[in-house]
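Model: You mentioned two targets. I'll fold them one after the other.
Researcher: Yes, keep them separate.
Model: Target one:
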Amino acid sequence: MIHEMPKLPYDMEALAPKMSKETFDYHYGKHLQTYVNNLNKLIAGTDFEEMSLEDIILNSKGPVFNNAAQTWNHTFFFMTLTPKQEDMPHELADKIILTFGSVDKFKEEFIKSAMAVFGSGWTWLVKDNENNIKILNTPNAGNPITEGLKPLMVIDIWEHAYYIDYRNNRAAYLDSVWNLIDWNKVSERL
């Protein structure tokens, strides 16, 4: 099985000015492409060659895991974004209010958690097997499926996700990318 680059549901310049085409050229076109290429090279001729991306993540370690997880994480991140954000669907909003007290409190806690990531990683909204939702940080290529959790949304906290547009201002990046979250997609995953 050859893993391929995801087809974006929007043009690479569609998220500007919150996320520039230059950022997309590097983040999607170079970083993600490198993970996909490396993964395909690493799994050629191995038991992983015929596995789904999720199965590779659940059954691998080291470079194979890192490239598989980064391919999955980045794809999930890019597919969570939209140039035309709509209001959060009621089902998702109700679940967030039940868990965090309000949608604003959820945003505050999510951004606070993302700001606390030391170095590189990901901040997720996940659902557990008992239908509870929570915010989770993972370092480096970490992915919640390895912990039996279902990812609902993610924001990439690696500097390459924001350095072109925001330099070292992670807070400004988080505030901007929050306005690109496709709440309908997040709700569908609930």
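Model: Target two:
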Amino acid sequence: MRAHLRSLDDKQRYPRGSPLSDVPIVHMARFVIIDRLTYQGTPAKADALKSPYLLFVCDFDGRSIDALVQAMVENIPDQVTAIWDHCIRFPGIRSRDQLSAYFEQCQLTTNLLLADQPEASVSDILKGLISRRRLGDFIKQVQSRPPDPAQLQRDFLQMWRTLQTEMPRPGEL
């Protein structure tokens, strides 16, 4: 399992950084294998796990795990199976209802938001990032070679029109 998880960031196999880049609602995801508990020292007892646990932390668009399960099964079904098939009672991907119930059973509720813009979708954030990058490039170009005002306006409008249709995919920026 560790070797498989490490392979998920292989740039040759996954040029955009991870198969989770193909899940359009995922902002951030992380896998951790927990195979032992840290001993806190006396007076605590040393605890041992009966088996390793897979921790999957994911910040995604939507309020329900159903949306995440559907997006992962639609976009990376082989990876979902390859990862969670190692987990106890994994129901497979044939029934999304069973898979959603499985994820919900294992889910921990938290009040900690990892996204700095919790109401923004992945698309909103990517659009903002590409706009910021293009505007920065435009300003650098203008500062290095200041055009006449009419040309500046034409160049800005061209950049603006390009931004209206440009939509980067996750992992491309």
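Researcher: Noted. Anything on target two?
Model: Strands lie at 26-34, 53-60.
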